[in-house]
Amino acid sequence: MEDYPTNLLEFEKRFATEQACRQYFQKLRWPDGFQCPNCGNKKAWLTKRDLYHCENCGVQTSLLAGTIFQDTKKPLQLWFHAIWHITNQKYGANAPGLQRILGLGSYHTAWTWLHKLRRAMVRPGRDRLEGIIEVDDTFIGGKRTGKRGRGASGKELVVIATQKDGRKIGRIRLQRVPDASAESLENAVQKI
Ligand SMILES: [Zn+2]
């Protein structure tokens, strides 16, 4: 989406209300306007429980049904905060961090959300990245803080490829590499 915020202040402004989040998500889900999943009709009214009631067949559809947010009892706004947090952690988000930033009562919820969102960010089938790709590398894991490049023992070197999607960050791929040699890096990037 072109109007996705590029910094925290814009994000807070843009998604200040649950209504704003729902409107944004509605545009993502139905870019050409609502369409009934049952009969394809485009006209519906919104019920008191925020369901789309198809004027043609009467089937009621929720905005979140069939998406990763289906059956959630938490506000969409909180999910949006989770996504913002995860995509803005250079060294990767973790469950305790997510729990703290969202004020979630349960560690298990934070863990589940993190994994659900990670799975959604790397789609199964892995169609390759396209367009403008930014590549970076980082060390993950290990107890000691190592130097960049060779010799940071106990750490895994990982190449991060990010597909630029206008001004925002699009899809992301991670690929483990044995070392920081040009050959290894090139190999990894080929697979991404
Ligand atoms: Zn219908």
Tell me what the structure shows.
With 192 residues, the protein is of the alpha+beta class. It has two domains: 8-121, no CATH class; 133-191, no CATH class. Helices cover 33% and strands 20% of the residues. It contains six helices and six strands; from the N terminus they run ααβββαααβββα. Strands 1-2-3 form a three-stranded antiparallel β-sheet, with no helix packed on it. Strands 4-5-6 form a three-stranded antiparallel β-sheet, covered by helices on one side. Strand 1 (44-46) and strand 2 (51-54) form a beta hairpin. Helix 3 (76-87) packs across helix 5 and helix 4 (95-102) packs across helix 5. The longest helix is centred in the middle third of the chain and has 15 residues, at 107-121. It is globular and about 60 Å long. The model has no long low-confidence stretch (mean pLDDT 80). Bound molecules: zinc ion (ZN). Residues 36, 38-39, 41, 54, 56-57, 59 line the site of zinc ion (ZN).
List the helices and strands and how they pair.
Blueprint: H1 8-14, H2 18-29, E1 44-46, E2 51-54, E3 60-62, H3 76-87, H4 95-102, H5 107-121, E4 133-140, E5 156-165, E6 168-177, H6 182-191
Antiparallel strand pairs: 1-2, 2-3, 4-5, 5-6
Bound molecules: zinc ion (ZN).
What attributes does this structure have?
single chain; 192 residues; alpha+beta; 2 domains; three-stranded antiparallel beta sheet; globular; binds zinc ion
